[in-house]
Amino acid sequence: MITIHSFVFSPFAENTYLLSDPTGACLIIDPGCYEPEEFQELTDFVTKHNLKPVGIVNTHAHVDHVLGVAQLKRIYGIPFALHPSDEPLLRAVKTYAPNYGFVRFEEPEVERWLDVKETITFGESSLRMLFVPGHAPGHVAFVNDDQKFVIGGDTLFRQSIGRTDLPGGNHQTLLQSIRSQLFTLPDDYTVYAGHMQPTTIGFEKKHNPFLKS
Q1: Half-sphere exposure of 123 toward its Cβ, with a 13 Å CA cutoff?
Q2: For residue 186, what are the CA distances in angstroms to 128, 153, 165, 200, 202?
Q3: CA 95, CA 210: separation in Å to the nearest integer?
Q4: What domain of life does the UniProt record list for this protein's source (predicted)?
Q5: Residue-wise pLDDT tens for the chain (213 aa)?
Q6: For 111, which of 79, 81, 116, 138 could close a Cys bridge (C-beta 3.0–4.6 Å)?
Q7: Prediction pTM value
Q8: How far apart are the first and last CA of the chain?
Q9: CA nearest 146: which of 166, 162, 132, 126?
């Protein structure tokens, strides 16, 4: 059984997810922590629950999702994985992060380039990947079918969708990704998004104004 814990970090109110299983192994997804107290909140949680971080994986590489990667890699000595199509986005962050006030941003090195045909494993648990470009060219989502959930990043939100006016974004590509990848999942799958509260596939099929047929 995977336990999902979320943290809301930075002025972007970005959702960072920590997934753990009964072995104590945990996976950090989209770490958006930047301020010292945000790192402290995450590391205190890890220590309190006797967890062992084994890796960082990202849905995509926009600034609000990668702020904490380099420091957490250093703290825990763990690798970072990202889809290769998002490498240009990652490399660009250092040039614009100061414009948002993130003057201490550290660019992380990527140890593993994700292949959506692979499975992400930690402890006794695993996640399969979906390729869902549109918000970002290398955007992926992580799915667990046993527990019926998706870590969806900035693709699908409660009654909304990800922005497509950023570099690498494409509105029609995003809509196609949602319809062909996420909306083929059963209605009772929970979507844990990169911002705001969770939703479900079924709710968004019925109520998302961007995806009305």
Answers
A1: 17
A2: 15, 18, 29, 9, 7
A3: 32
A4: Bacteria
A5: 999 999 999 999 999 999 999 999 999 999 999 999 999 999 999 999 999 999 999 999 999 999 999 999 999 999 999 999 999 999 999 999 999 999 999 999 999 999 999 999 999 999 999 999 999 999 999 999 999 999 999 999 999 999 999 888 999 999 999 999 999 999 999 999 999 999 999 999 999 999 986
A6: 79
A7: 0.97
A8: 36
A9: 126
Q: How many domains does the chain have?
A: 1
Supply 86's token pair. Answer: 């998002």
Phi, psi of 81 (to 5 degrees): -125, 140
Q: How far apart are CA 93 and CA 64, in angstroms?
A: 10
- CB within 8 Å of 73: residues ≥ 6 apart: 56, 79, 80, 108
For residue 27, give its domain range.
3-211
Provide the 10 A C-beta neighbour count for residue 13: 12
Residue corresponding to tokens 């192994």: 25
DSSP β-bridge partners for residue 3: 20
Structure tokens at 2: 């995977």
Question: In CATH, what number is assigned to the domain containing residue 128?
Answer: 3.60.15.10
How far apart are alpha carbons 78 and 74 in whole angstroms? Answer: 7
Q: How far apart are CA 102 and CA 97, in angstroms?
A: 5
